[in-house]
Specification:
By secondary structure, the protein is of the alpha/beta class. Helix content is 35%, strand content 25%. The protein is built from seven helices and seven strands; from the N terminus they run βαβααββααβββαα. The longest helix is centred in the N-terminal third of the chain and has 16 residues.
Length: 195
């Protein structure tokens, strides 16, 4: 079994990633277990932030490190909150308070199109870094629904669905999510590597 560090304190993300990588006999340990300090996300893009966290994690642990950066991009708000999604939510009282803030910002705008982006970076060394991206397109609900998922999930209706991600089972979400799409690309890549 190969051990990778997953540079995150988010238990939900860790479970999601571990479930998808399980068949490759990869075990993940989180930032706390690896004693990784938090990295200040100074990147302007999801890719820059993911690479920054993965490379810094490798420098600290000398182990393969996975890091992700993800967020919600809202068309009518010029793709905001984007890379600042988690900080934006924290600044406005967390979830579900932030949904009211977004509705106020959107006002009566009929354009409620949005998409999630996830970029996963894998640092095998300080210079050997690979990135994998996934997106999930949809619309914003008028009011949050469901208690499943995390973050903005109860506010986001994926294209082709009539329910928010907060109402969809974890199994279903793991087939369609932005993170699942990025992880599928990572999974296919890792299958080709001698771990």
């Amino acid at each position: 079994m190969t051990t990778f560090v997953f540079a995150s304190h988010n238990a939900h993300k860790l479970e999601e990633v571990q479930r998808i990588l399980q068949p490759l006999n990869i075990r993940l340990i989180d930032s706390a277990t690896a004693r990784l300090p938090d990295v200040i996300e100074t990147g302007k893009t999801f890719k820059e932030n993911a690479v920054l966290k993965a490379v810094e994690g490798f420098k600290q642990t000398k182990m393969p490190v996975l890091a992700d950066d993800s967020g919600l991009c809202i068309s009518a708000l010029n793709e905001a909150p984007g890379v600042y999604s988690a900080r934006f939510a924290a600044k406005h009282g967390g979830y579900p308070a932030v949904f009211n803030v977004l509705n106020e910002q959107l006002k009566d705008n009929p354009d409620r199109k949005a998409h999630y982006v996830c970029v996963i970076a894998l640092a095998m060394s300080e210079t050997q870094v690979y990135t994998f991206e996934g997106e999930l397109h949809g619309t914003l609900a008028l009011t949050p629904e469901g208690t499943g998922g995390f973050g903005y999930d109860p506010f986001f209706i994926p294209d082709g669905y009539h329910q928010t991600l907060g109402c969809i089972s974890a199994e279903e979400k793991n087939k369609i999510s932005h993170r699942a799409k990025a992880l599928k690309k990572l999974f296919e890549f890792l299958k080709t590597q001698q771990l």
